[in-house]
Write a structure and sequence with these properties.
Elements: H1 2-23, E1 35-38, E2 48-50, E3 68-71, E4 77-79, E5 84-91, E6 97-103, E7 108-115, E8 117-118, E9 125-126, E10 131-134, E11 145-155, E12 158-164, H2 166-169, E13 170-173, E14 201-205, E15 211-215, E16 224-229, E17 233-239, E18 243-248, E19 251-256, E20 260-265, E21 274-279, E22 283-285, E23 294-312, E24 317-324, E25 328-332, H3 337-340, E26 349-359, E27 364-374, H4 392-402, H5 411-417, H6 427-441
Parallel strand pairs: 1-13, 22-27
Antiparallel strand pairs: 2-3, 3-11, 4-10, 5-6, 5-9, 6-7, 7-11, 8-10, 11-12, 14-17, 14-20, 15-16, 17-18, 18-19, 21-23, 23-24, 23-25, 23-26, 26-27
């Protein structure tokens, strides 16, 4: 009876798992810009024996390959493609010894299967390029290789769809900092790529009976990294009239424009750049006083450049001008400008404060302009001993002068002593000085 109950539980669990996997079929996979990654094998191992099969996202069956297989010698290093947290590093059935990393900044997992040895453990934090395992042929494997994949879901501790093609999800370099020629890098402009975004839009196939190949480069001689079924709708980000940068079902690559027709051209995006929460210096500022720069710039397009600071009234830049290249759609001036534009070092004079920004369209936005002055540093009236404050010692100096107890009284002290502004120094100034000292004490 106990064995029967355990078998029934196992069957129910399997059914629940199948339904969970079948129900998770994404209707739309977000476009993704390639992220820099380290090639997971040692640089000399570049041969890919099996490519990613996008059909795995429609049918999570092991017959469709959910990763790429990189041929490598047994015992050679396996590197973390990106920094992240180790979710598991142990035996996982057909995967053999499997390491799974989670990359919170990307919201995806990378997994490295069939290892001969794991060199990390669950919960560990690894950096990009760290050695996490050794190449092997454990589990269901026909030879030494790295089964390297990317997914956004785990089910029961195992990788699950949506899967992404590692060759198009990442842009690679090896651990020596050189380009890895074994990894194709579609959707990234190369020196020979003359594609432009004027072809960007939504397309469907034309004169295609079965499928349209997605290739790793602008050539029929390049590897096939995926397919687009007949009459399917897909996205084109760039093109040159002959080849297009395409995205379909999580796969990015290139396809011939002879077999596609435009459904809808992408509307031109306007940046609509603006700035909120601004603090700008106006009027008269005190010499040597700091001023805090605030303001958050937002745009519908990436902000290419932000520059500005303090200028002389004739438009010439002072030493307090800086520039930043955020390449994001939001930029906070307090993160860099506030720390690098120092108002306290400015000398007395008339100034203009300006902030200017540009987006990727090349449009220039003049976001902030204000005028201010910094007055000359005036000495404190009544401060006869020059200590910067009014106190009893100042009154004693004036009293001694009035009683002719000292002849050591400079012109500067004389100017500071005329408290009532009548052009002479007398007992009435002493009275006013004592009042000022009392007010300061209070």
């Amino acid at each position: 009876m106990k064995n029967l109950f355990m078998r029934a539980s196992a069957i129910l669990l399997s059914i629940a798992f199948i339904f969970t996997v079948q129900l998770y079929i994404p209707s739309n996979i977000d476009a993704h810009a390639a992220v820099y990654a380290v090639w997971p094998a040692e640089p000399k191992y570049k041969n890919i024996t099996t490519y990613f099969d996008p059909a795995r996202n429609s049918n999570d069956n092991s017959g469709y390959h959910n990763a790429i297989d990189i041929e490598a010698a047994g015992g050679s290093n396996i590197y973390a493609a990106c920094g992240g947290e180790v979710i598991s590093a142990d035996w996982k059935g057909d995967y053999g010894y499997l390491v799974i990393l989670y990359h919170a900044d990307l919201g995806v997992y990378t997994f490295y299967a069939h290892a001969s040895q794991v060199l990390t453990s669950a919960g560990a934090k690894v950096k990009q390029g760290d050695t996490i395992a050794k190449v092997g042929s454990t589990g269901n494997s026909s030879g030494n290789h790295i089964h390297f994949g990317v997914c956004n879901t785990l089910v029961g501790g195992y990788p699950a769809r949506t899967y992404y093609d590692p060759l198009t999800y990442f842009t690679y370099s090896d651990n020596n900092g050189e380009n890895n020629n074994g990894a194709q890098i579609p959707n990234e402009k190369t020196p020979s790529c003359s594609c432009s975004d004027k072809y960007a839009g939504t397309y469907t196939t034309k004169n295609v009976v079965t499928y349209l190949n997605i290739r790793a480069d602008h050539s029929t001689n390049s590897a096939v990294v995926g397919t687009i079924p007949a009459n399917a709708v897909f996205t084109v980000t760039m093109g040159d009239g002959k080849w297009a940068h395409v995205e379909y079902n999580g796969v990015k690559g290139f396809a011939s424009m002879d077999y596609m027709q435009l459904k809808e051209k992408n509307p031109e995006i306007k940046s609509d750049m603006k700035i909120t929460g601004v603090t700008a210096p106006e009027g008269e500022l005190e010499l040597g006083k700091p001023f805090s720069i605030r303001g958050v710039i937002t745009s519908a397009l990436p902000i290419k450049k932000v520059y500005g600071g303090v200028y002389f009234r004739n438009g010439e830049a002072t030493s307090q001008c800086v520039e930043a290249a955020p390449n994001t759609e939001k930029y906070d001036l307090s993160t860099f400008f506030d720390n690098n534009v120092i108002f306290g070092v400015l000398k007395s004079g008339e100034y203009t404060y300006k902030i200017t920004a540009e987006d990727t369209s090349g449009t220039v936005y003049y976001l902030v302009t204000s005028e201010f002055t910094i007055a000359e540093d005036k000495p404190l009236l009544g401060d006869l001993n020059g200590d910067g404050v009014l106190n009893v010692s100042d009154a004693v100096i004036l009293q001694n002068y009035l009683l002719k107890r000292t002849d050591d009284f400079s012109r500067e002290q004389f100017m500071l002593t005329d408290m009532n502004g009548d052009g002479s120094v007398d007992v009435f100034d002493l009275v006013e000085l004592k009042k000022a000292i009392l007010n300061t004490a209070e």
